Amino acid sequence: MRRDAPNAVPHASHLDGHALARARFALPSEVPARAWPRWFARTFDVWWHTGLVATVLGYTLCRTSPGFLRWLETPFGWKLFGLACIPAGLLLDALVQKVAGNTPGKAMLGLRVVTADGRFPGLREILGRNMGVWSAGFGFGLPAVSLLTMARQGLRLRRGEAASYDDDYFLVRARPVRWWRKIVFGMSFFFLFLVVVVLDAMDRQDSREMAAVLAASPYAWTNPATGRMVTVPPQWRHETFTDEDGLVLHVFTEHTEHAVVLLAREAHGEATIAQYSRALVERLENQFALPGGQLEDFRGKSSWLVTGEEKDGTARVRLRVVEVNGAAWRVMAMQSPPAAYTDELVLALEQGLWDTVTPRE
């Protein structure tokens, strides 16, 4: 970016060409913006722009990338992801400023960024300035570094100098705003601050729970109907429920709730396993779409296997029904996207549960 002007802001006693341009293009009521209003406006804009980017990008990656989900399980996964989203948030900030003419934080506090000759900066100029804010202002978002970089920029402004990322190319102008706009900004800033604090607390809690799960040992679960035991990885939480028909359901939920595996036993009467399975699918049709299905041998037993999804499309479903000693045993696995994230865990648990019903020969 070309910066032909001197590095220091000239005093009124010896105006140069840029200073004359400032006086000419500034609005009558505008004055150079002070440090604190600039900090509050910039912090507000970075918070909500980065938060929006992190929400959209995080949701998309969590539904499509198993590797991303595994990365989030690392001790600093979410924090590193948040830091990585700041440049994208500053890109969104530049786009908003280019399209709308200003960003919400600066608009509410009566601030605007112009070039030294009073021109509204183009997208590349705004983005270049924002990258300077990211490095020289926010210290790349690193807490210890950002305290030093922001203090340095604040001291420059108090001495009457331009921020290092403004140099003598950009000006931040301020005009008086009504009291109610300051109150609206204050309430908006406080609300956004609370959101940041709550999300940080949730991240800390999730990190502690994740660390506890990963450090835990597998546990033994015994099938009460057969007395056979299986070792279950610590990622699975077991609960027992009884449905409205009195059927006992053993439910295993993966710790991030991306997968649920259900084990149940039910008498099938005079019906064949195929007839029973089709009737079961009909009973579940309000919640699941399970088209087709096929008979196959499973560990020397007659078995029915069908795959499908939840009616709202949020989870992949696999149902296997096996006839063992006159009873119909079923294992149903439900996996939220990306299914590959829990494939290995689900397959291992399914095989372990079947070992408690009909051990491998």
* SS element count, helices: 10
User: What is the H-and-E element order?
Assistant: HEHHHHEHHEHEEEEEHEEEEEH
Poorly predicted tracts of residues? 1-25
How many DSSP E strands? 13
Helix-strand makeup class: alpha+beta
> What overall form do the CA principal axes indicate?
elongated
- Separation of the first and last Cα atoms: 73 Å
Strand count, sense and closure of the main sheet?
Answer: 8 strands, antiparallel
Rg of Cα set = 31 Å
What is the arithmetic mean of pLDDT?
89
Strand content: 15-25%
How many separate domains?
2
Secondary-structure blueprint of this entry?
Blueprint lengths: L16 H9 L5 E2 L2 H30 L1 H7 L4 H24 L3 H5 L2 E5 L7 H15 L5 H16 L11 E5 L4 H37 L3 E4 L6 E4 L3 E7 L5 E7 L4 E9 L5 H11 L4 E2 L4 E5 L2 E10 L5 E9 L2 E9 L7 H15 L4
Antiparallel strand pairs: 1-3, 2-3, 4-5, 6-7, 7-8, 8-13, 9-11, 10-11, 11-12, 12-13
What does this structure look like?
It contains ten helices and 13 strands. The chain is α+β, with helices and mostly antiparallel strands and 361 residues long. It folds into two domains: 12-214, no CATH class; 218-357, Mog1/PsbP, alpha/beta/alpha sandwich (Protein Transport Mog1p, Chain A). Strand 4 and strand 5 form a beta hairpin. The termini are far apart. The model is unreliable at 1-25 (pLDDT under 50).
